[in-house]
Fold each of these.
Amino acid sequence: MRDPFKIDQPTCISFSGGRTSAYMLWRVLQANGGLPAEAVVCFANTGKEVEATLRFVRDCAEHWRVPIHWLEYRAAEPGFAVVDFDTASREGEPFEALSEARSHLPNPVARGCTTSLKIRPMHRFVRRLGWAEWDQFIGIRADEQRRVSKIRARGHSTESTRETMCMPLAEAGVTVQDVAAFWQTQSFDLELLTVNGRTLEGNCDLCFLKPRGQRLALIKARPEAAVWWIRMESLKLASKPSGARFRADGPSYADLAHFAADQRDLFDPAVEPITCYCGD
Ligand code: SF4
């Protein structure tokens, strides 16, 4: 049987900064005796990743001696910038620049942020390498059946038919338990709380797709995290009146911060986050 981690053609390994995609990278390195010449590893930073995620990406590169390209969205050509741990945005600059360029905030109906902040910078980066067609390795596990079926049915990303989506973890039957067991044996780890395999602060810290109760709990734990999201909702953009929100179907971030300060609890552990490409 073919080893799904084996690489023999141009391949972009999408590293979200979470444990699952890091494990995928480790399996690639094991299967190929290191990073094959035809492969690149990319991490797209939105500027709203928490510091522990940035440290984890840096640590994976250092511990496993593998180059990881840190990319960020830019409005100006070529549409991305290459940064590193020291120069990476930490105040949401790429996210804010995108909102300004589009004149509105992303929301659950017209999301766009995953595509513009993560997928397109990677596409642009590999095209600048001269790639016309390539495989895109994404860290989706076998236990994420809904996402697996959806991506398998499509075959390529929503953005490019020249990119073949590959899910080696799902193909190899890797589950959340396997990933957790792996990280228990490592000398370093992502220093973020995980509940039932979900890293609550993973991806953008207060992503509007996270359940309301989860965002509230995160604001309670770190009230300063809400400041940027509140400011973005108060921004006036060409197509966005001041006060227009990330989610019209729930409280504003300012309200969530007030609830958090009042110690009221909106947590509903049954509510699942809306899935997106942003990863684990
Ligand atoms: S984590 Fe959420 S807010 Fe950030 S890019 Fe992904 S969908 Fe958008």
Note: The pocket of iron/sulfur cluster is lined by residues 46, 106, 111, 113-114, 117, 203-204, 207-209, 276, 278 (CB under 6 Å).
Amino acid sequence: MKKVELLAPAGDLEKLETALRFGADAVYLGTERFGLRALAGNFDLGQLRQARDLCRAQGKKLYLTLNAWLRPQEFPDLAALLEELRPLDFDAYIVGDPGVLATVRQVDAARPLHLSTQANTTNAQGVNFWAAAGVARVNLARELRLEEIRAIRAATACELEVFVHGALCVAYSGRCLLSAALTGREANRGLCAHPCRWRYALMEETRPGEYFPVEEDERGTYVFNSRDLCLVEHLPELVAAGVDSLKIEGRMKSVYYVAAVTRVYRAALDRCLADPRGFALDPEWRAELDKVSHRPYGTGFLFGGEGAGVHAADSAYVRACDFVGVVREEGESLVVQGRNRFLPGETLEIIGPAMRTAAFCVNEIRSLEGDSLPAGQPNRLVRLTLPEGTQAGDLLRRPVKSLGDTDQI
Ligand code: SF4
């Protein structure tokens, strides 16, 4: 079967290293300006060079997002940024605004261009239009059904990319003024406060204080609330439909999220490419995806947008694990850098690439100097007895039942 790329988010250098280590073929990341995700870590020029070096050393691809919609006065700054980035050896810009596309063409004509999902491309005519404008790859609108993706593939030679995992948006990806209107934070600048997921009630003007709940069903009022996309069990259909790249959403997610989700999709994609007919969902993959912070999962619009594929009655994040720490190299030995507090006697899990997972009991926590400590603390480097096979870059987690917030650290 043809090679299909697994494309993972890289909100900062640590997440980039993690995504590569846990199986991504390519990563996408933002510069400090003009990439939607104003609150993600984003990269300055020095960090971009490091990112480029890391990707090149491993033969992986690096794409830079420039997918904001710009105002007239911003184009001189964009041209200056493009000029600055021109010597840097990376694989493509991801753009959405035709004005940005035209400016890249002028300043950095040789650079490949990918079209962002923000451009909402829903048909082959559109894909071919963008291809004629110099776009090498189109990230198709998330609203497409599988048979529509197949039809587009049959009518274009352009590379096609689809999202397979992560948050959905009730508006056409970020083309929504709700956040700007209610909070002054514009979704189109990567600042969405997600007000579509807040609780709402209806009040008739002459009855102040009498709220009528906006009910979808007996469980709640989340009429705009979307599920998270999860297509891990449908990779064979997507590969057979001819997509070139499978994209994981989430530049603002934690290192732990990037690691766990990337390794699941790596395992699933490898299995799918090796034996598409014999492919079956491994329960371990879904269990692993349940161990990261997520809203209820659905298949989005792939099989039609109605009902449970997209909308959820409950907006709460759930997860089955807490991110506890990262394994680092310290001289000849391995140490743990804490991300959350942990205690002696706790049972933790180590996760590594290729779905390597090992549970172990923390018998003693020691400082780098060897003193016994009552707990591991965020950011502190400590020594533990780790399971055999543990490697630098592995992550530690702790099982929890469910929490109402994200796992972003
Ligand atoms: S407010 Fe909701 S629908 Fe609008 S852009 Fe943000 S996430 Fe999307």
Note: Residues 169-171, 174, 176, 178-179, 187, 192, 194-196 surround iron/sulfur cluster (CB under 6 Å).
